[in-house]
Amino acid sequence: MTQAAQAPVRETYAGTDDEEFSRLTEPFRRELLAHCYRMLGSTHDAQDVVQDTYLRAWRGFSGFEGRSSLRVWLYRIATSACLTTLKHRNRRVLPSGLGPSGDPDQPLTVAGPDVAWVHPLPEAELPVTDPAAIVTTRSSVRLALVAALQYLPARQRAVLILRDVLAWHASEVAELLDTTTDAVNSALARARAHLARTGLTEDMFTEPADPADRMLLDRYARAFQNADTAALLQVLREDVTMEMPPHLTWFAGRDAVIRFLTTTVFGRVGTIRTIPARANGQPALATYTQGTEGLYHPHSLHVLTPTRTGVSRIVSFHDPSLFAPGGLPTRIDETSRPVAGR
User: Fold this and answer.
1) Quick one: 121 and 22 in the same domain?
2) What is the pTM of this model?
3) Domain co-membership, 243 together with 172
4) Is residue 271 located within the same domain as residue 189?
């Protein structure tokens, strides 16, 4: 967990200029983005709210008297902005939250414009801080957790994040949300019970650290690029799931996933190229498909959940606009090297 609210700093910031405001507040920008992302489930929405937070903070900075820490003050503004945003947004989801798994022999169903999807969070957006905090941050933005959070009422969501992720005291959360400590504790209990019902476990969020785990991810990338279903059988768990926003259709079980890939995705060998990536603190794979000019173009970003017994979940975002924000090239050649100026 990250450190709880810092001790109050009794200062006045009246007359502080723009440069000083930036110096004091910019160190908190990335952690505020991660906080807003957990609340909203969208990198784009989180970025908008953080921008609004800094604008509000700049306008009110001369009146900030340091009764709480600057960090707490910024979190108060950001959380309030998130709660306001959630009043006017549809809940963000993943396909598995909308219906039963599909038949790989049937056509895929694309969602309508009324469905709002959870977005992946590029690794570059995570806070740069000490190693222990990095591990905590990665665990708290895992895709399964963020998707589950979206089913909580907005204030329960805020309570859970502030208490269990940011390690704030109940009294501090009560003050921020203008409620009582008892109400905070009650909301936290209900939120924790909901997450327990989703089946989230620590094992799902194990960071691949030993050579065997890294090898598993390399084997997945190699098998996918080579359209090698026999090799994929060796790296996918029997209960693996595969989701593909913006498609409503998703698949449960290794046989269904392999059948779908074999009949729908894999063509002749050489038409797919991959580049390793990271998103949501998890390993990811950017896939590219061959174009008519011989170059490879963005197709999908696979966010993977590796476990000790194989890959248990694949969320394949079919959205090429996700590549550039994640630092991924928008064109590559046959050796998977970026192509500039195309």
Assistant:
1) yes
2) 0.88
3) no
4) no
Residues 106, 31 within the same domain: yes
Q: Residue for token digits 């209990």?
A: 189
Cα maximum dimension of the chain? 67
Q: What is the CATH number of the domain that holds 262?
A: 3.10.450.50
Walk along the chain (342 residues) and give the pLDDT tens digit of each residue: 444 444 444 444 545 578 888 999 999 999 999 999 999 999 999 999 999 999 999 998 877 766 678 999 999 999 999 999 999 889 999 999 999 999 999 999 999 999 999 999 998 887 666 555 565 677 889 999 999 999 999 999 999 999 998 999 999 999 999 999 999 999 999 999 988 887 765 444 445 455 566 788 899 999 999 999 999 999 999 999 999 999 999 999 999 999 999 999 998 778 999 999 999 988 999 999 999 888 999 999 999 998 889 999 999 999 999 999 889 999 999 888 998 754
Give the structural domain span for 158: 18-201
Count of domains observed in the chain: 2
The length of the chain, given as a count of residues:
342
DSSP state of 163: I
Q: Residue 233 gets which letter from DSSP? A: H
